[in-house]
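Re: that chain you flagged

S.,

Sorry for the slow reply, it's been a week of failed gels. I finally had a moment to sit down with the sequence you sent. For the record, here it is as I used it:
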Amino acid sequence: MAGHPYNAAYLQEISETQGALFERLQDVSPNVDGREFIRAYMKSDTRRFLDRGDVYLATLSPSELMDYYRAEDAHDIKDGRPFRGSAPNWIGQFYAQYQWQTGTESRDIVDQITPEWLESAYPGLHDLDMRLAVEKVAAEVGDSENCICDGRGQ
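Prediction finished late last night. Pasting the structure tokens below so you have them in one place:
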């Protein structure tokens, strides 16, 4: 990969918004199936636009992004096993950072690194710097060659 998919100025905003979006799923529906939602969102056109650094979407609040996603991607919230605690926020931020560091499309990342896998890896990864967590997971799934680490390629 030659460089990051969009300017670093948007990374923190996209990462924090996506983390808050995943964490606040229970505000939309108390029994929302968090894993299904994450999978559908990561494969959506909304997330595809964010993969490319869409400036409008990058500056939306979590609730505005949810409204946009539900309207534009016509996603219906499904009940199932809720996702509780801080893991959903971390998973949202992880996926955004992974996409930015590797340039891999979100729809492919969520197939390779499932929400369930991240949920089980969360206890061992969540205290690491997010860039380091991405490096470790990229190495684990055989994606190290695409990972831009230690400030290279910015």
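What I noticed first: The chain has a mean pLDDT of 89.

Talk soon,
D.
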